[in-house]
């Protein structure tokens, strides 16, 4: 029996290993890996060759994979999107308000369509179907909008907010639904205990998160952070089951806690690697193994339900998306509705819970999962082809430089030569400023109010370089609150530099920069000549295009005479060689002409 379990596990893990390779080899990148894993499970399970049957070891690992998937779903929620405040513009939508209105409409339309299914005699419970139709798959939506380079745009923020709100709200409503169906409605107030535990856990962990003692224990064989995560997951899973809630809610809330703590990217990557490298693929393969799609073709009612359910899922998202027509084109509106129809993990959770409660049978469970798989295949492909693309680069708000001096004026001139849009704001005239051709805007004082009047914060990147560190810090924090991603501060106080770097600012000092450059000239003058060569520029470029994932540098046809100096990957520096491959999520430091660098950036980021 034990030998059979290990053989079954080996088959499942082997399938999970080869699926990404096959998708890459046959250029099937448009198929999400998790969908391919379910399809593979169908082939080896009840619907196919029936190689894998019910096995206690696989069932346990599948359950752990499901729990960890719910944890990752909570971890992927970026609550900072609620804090980002764009400069008020009456011609632009408020992302938070619009997203809440659209989600409220999604719930309303979903309930109306569910009632139609009840009237047709295809389902019995409209509330469960409302939750199933309302869900959105964060794991499908986020990679797609990243590939389209929409995450920093207003429409991308709206899509992300709709997904986050749907993910969080439907998870809570699913738990409430299950408690009422399980005749534990009176225990619903105990959910307050669970949320209180979340708050206490968050406050406690945050208080001790930055202790040096813990920093020293995050590496090596101890890996305290990973141990703590698994302890937190099991704690909340156990607490959820104790109060009569679903265990997946506990795992989801554990992920929310870690997300709120804003852990380092390399730590999140470590958790992703473990989950998607082992446990989660087992779960998705086993979902396919347990499905018997041949039963779906026996029941005429199910055959009628599936196309109707697929249609209703799209109607429930496209109709509410019409709210966006006030600001966006028809293609963009329909694209949002189609993309947010993608659903998978929460639908599997909802149908699994309903199956356990006896609300649905095995056949209906299989039909719901199969329709969800279809949405994950149809929606990303349709969105990619339907969403309007521009042949030109997206509009740039440019670079704002606050604080004029000889250094910032010269840098501004150099950036103008690179075809960048630059504006310099200052309270004084700099000697020789009349020789520069870019906008030099004078303000009475360097305050938030006076700079906002001159649109200084309407920029993609902002450099704050006055002589006063405290002024620079105040202006920099305001820029961060407005959602400006790149904020560069001049800070001469060495004690403040590390603290501000941890807050996400790029910090420089005139004194320390000069000292560092001099040391570099002594140690390696060749590198300095490369950096300061005015015929070449150096740019940091994000690799966000999945097409070039695992592509060797020598196979990039658009590099030209540009040179990749470094690759920043998961907090580490990789020195590139000819056979070095790029990975999705890399940051590369490239030297070349501004024109060549523009081509490379467009290829790797779009």
Percent in helix: 55-70%
Q: What structural category arises from helix and sheet content?
A: alpha/beta
How large is the count of helical segments?
A: 23
Major sheet attributes: 6 strands, parallel
The best one-word shape is globular
Report how far the terminal alpha carbons are from each other.
51 Å
Query: Which value, in Å, is the CA radius of gyration?
Result: 27 Å
Residue ranges: pLDDT <50 for 5 or more in a row?
391-395
Sheet-strand content, in percent, reads 5-15%
| Average of per-residue pLDDT values | 81
What's the total count of β strands?
A: 10
Q: Main sheet: which strands, in order across? A: 3-2-1-4-5-6
Model description:
- This protein starts with a helix and ends with a helix.
- It has helices at 2-25, 33-44, 56-75, 95-119, 126-134, 138-147, 154-181, 191-208, 212-216, 224-242, 247-260, 265-290, 300-321, 330-339, 345-357, 362-386, 406-417, 448-453, 469-481, 494-502, 510-523, 525-532, 594-605, and strands spanning 399-402, 422-426, 440-442, 461-464, 486-490, 506-508, 537-542, 563-569, 572-574, 587-592.
- The protein contains 23 helices and ten strands.
- By secondary structure, it is α/β, with parallel strands linked by helices.
- Strand 8 (563-569) and strand 9 (572-574) form a beta hairpin.
- The radius of gyration is 27 Å and the shape is globular.
- Helix 3 packs parallel to helix 11 (247-260), helix 10 (224-242) packs across helix 11 (247-260) and helix 14 (330-339) runs antiparallel to helix 16.
- The strands form two sheets. A six-stranded parallel sheet has the order 3-2-1-4-5-6, with helices on both faces. A four-stranded antiparallel sheet has the order 7-10-8-9, with helices on both faces.
- The chain is 58% helix and 8% strand.
């Amino acid at each position: 029996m034990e030998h059979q379990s290990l053989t079954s596990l080996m088959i499942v893990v082997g399938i999970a290993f080869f699926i990404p390779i096959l998708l890459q080899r046959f250029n099937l990148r448009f198929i999400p890996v998790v969908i391919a894993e379910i399809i593979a499970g169908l082939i080896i399970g009840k619907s196919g060759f029936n190689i894998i049957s019910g096995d206690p070891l696989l069932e346990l690992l599948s359950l752990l994979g499901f729990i960890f998937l719910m944890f990752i779903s909570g971890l992927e929620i970026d609550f900072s999107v609620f804090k980002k405040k764009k400069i008020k513009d009456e011609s632009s939508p408020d992302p938070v308000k619009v997203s809440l209105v659209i989600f409220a409409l999604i719930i309303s339309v979903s309930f109306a369509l569910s009632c139609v299914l009840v009237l047709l005699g295809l389902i019995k419970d409209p509330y469960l179907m409302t939750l199933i139709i309302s869900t959105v798959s964060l794991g499908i939506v986020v990679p797609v909008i990243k590939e389209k380079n929409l995450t920093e745009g207003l429409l991308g923020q709206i899509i992300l907010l709709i997904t986050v709100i749907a993910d969080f709200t439907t998870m809570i409503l699913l738990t409430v639904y299950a408690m009422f169906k399980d005749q534990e409605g009176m225990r619903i107030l105990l959910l307050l205990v669970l949320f209180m535990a979340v708050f206490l856990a968050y406050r406690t962990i945050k208080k001790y998160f930055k202790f040096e003692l813990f920093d020293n224990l995050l590496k090596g064989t101890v890996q305290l952070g990973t141990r703590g995560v698994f302890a937190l997951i099991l704690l909340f899973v156990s607490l959820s089951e104790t109060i009569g809630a679903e265990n997946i809610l506990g795992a989801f809330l554990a992920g929310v806690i870690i997300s709120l703590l804003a852990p380092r990217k390399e730590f999140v990557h470590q958790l992703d690697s473990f989950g998607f490298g082992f446990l989660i693929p087992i779960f998705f393969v086993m979902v396919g193994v347990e499905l018997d799609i041949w039963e779906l073709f026996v029941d005429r009612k199910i055959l009628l339900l599936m196309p109707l359910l697929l249609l209703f899922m799209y109607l429930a998202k496209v109709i509410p998306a019409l709210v966006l027509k006030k600001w966006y084109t028809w293609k963009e509106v329909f694209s949002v509705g189609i993309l947010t129809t993608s659903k998978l993990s929460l639908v599997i959770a909802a149908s699994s819970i309903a199956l356990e409660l006896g609300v649905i049978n095995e056949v209906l469970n299989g039909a719901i999962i199969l329709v969800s798989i279809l949405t994950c295949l149809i929606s990303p492909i349709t969105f990619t082809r339907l969403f309007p693309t521009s042949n030109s680069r997206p509009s740039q708000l440019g670079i704002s430089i606050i604080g004029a001096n000889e250094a910032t004026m010269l840098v501004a001139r150099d950036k103008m030569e690179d075809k960048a849009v630059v504006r310099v704001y200052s309270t004084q005239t700099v000697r020789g400023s009349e020789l520069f051709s870019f906008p030099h805007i004078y303000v009475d004082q360097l305050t938030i109010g006076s700079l906002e009047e001159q649109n200084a914060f309407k920029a993609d990147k902002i450099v704050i370089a006055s002589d006063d560190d405290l002024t620079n810090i105040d202006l920099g924090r305001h820029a961060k609150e407005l959602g400006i991603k790149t904020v560069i501060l001049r800070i001469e106080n060495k004690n403040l530099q590390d603290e501000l770097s941890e807050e996400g600012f790029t910090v420089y000092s005139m004194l320390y920069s000069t000292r560092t450059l001099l040391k570099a000239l002594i140690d390696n003058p060749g590198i300095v000549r490369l950096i300061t060569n005015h015929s070449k520029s150096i740019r940091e470029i994000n690799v966000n295009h999945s097409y070039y994932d695992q592509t060797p540098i020598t196979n990039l046809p658009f590099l030209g005479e540009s040179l990749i100096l470094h690759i920043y990957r998961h907090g580490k520096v990789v020195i590139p060689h000819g056979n070095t491959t790029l990975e999705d999520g890399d940051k590369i430091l490239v030297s070349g002409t501004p024109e060549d660098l523009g081509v490379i950036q467009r290829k790797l980021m779009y």
